[in-house]
Amino acid sequence: MLNxxxxxxxxxxxxxxxxxxxxxxxxxxxxxxxxxxxxIKALEERMGTPLVLRGTPARATDTGRRLARHMEEVxxxxxxxxRDLGQSGGPALPVPLAINADSLATWFTPAMAGLTxxxxxxxxxxxxxxxxxxxxxxxxxAVSARDTPVPGCDLHPLGxxxxxxxxxxxxxxxxFPEGLTxxxxxxxxxxxxxxxxxxxxxxxxxxxxxxxxxPAHRIPSTQGFVDAALAGIGWxxxxxxxxxxxLASGALVAxxxxxxxxxxxxxxxxxxxxxxxPLTAAIKRAATTQLVP
Length: 293
Fold this sequence. Notes:
By secondary structure, the protein is an alpha/beta fold. The chain has helices at about 5-20, 20-30, 35-45, 60-85, 100-110, 130-135, 170-175, 180-185, 200-210, 220-230, 240-250, 275-290; strands spanning about 50-55, 60, 95-100, 120-125, 140-145, 155-165, 190, 215-220, 235-240, 255, 260-270. The chain contains twelve helices and eleven strands.
């Protein structure tokens, strides 16, 4: 049990988990890899439990993750104190965030531009699951479809990312000659981002009034999703902003006229909120340019 916190050891732990290896952590801390290893070993002995799962990359145990999170919170408090005292010019603050890939590919990146005092550490996950990273204390903030605040966090509505179900004209003619029938949908290859992606399943259920098993290609890339549709590999729901030139040229067609709007929210830890206020403001501005109000 810790009676007092050994912050050099905690800093070494946080650096290993942030950079993924002892060598990279040593370089970031301007010490030797041996020093990093000794600090973490001493901390593990003091805690009586492993803190790092050695591998490529190095990963945290549950206890290690909690200690690293504490170190990040200390960094937040120090950054806020420096700001309150009118000091600047310190090292950039690592900011772990969880975000869905479609937001990153469409509207989120401009929000990060210009915030030179932050080092963004992005974790990609489905919009229905990204808030779980914040709930577990692994990130400071998240873009999520969750419409209720994560405990201990503030919630900011951002607007909705609009999707259209699309395919090539040839694909639509071959697989849906009589429209979106249950039989046709059960045979036409669809596209899914990953095993958590339920967007296509939910869209089909809304179209035909029930759920059916969909054959699917797994394409874990937003641009790859669009490219797969353009190649006639399958049909899927893509962000409308990425589809506009392809719809205008006729390379893709909408399978149904009604779009799907997925409301998004910015969840930010109340502890991190003061330091992340410039990022929150930038995210709100960026969201207004691409998201549906």
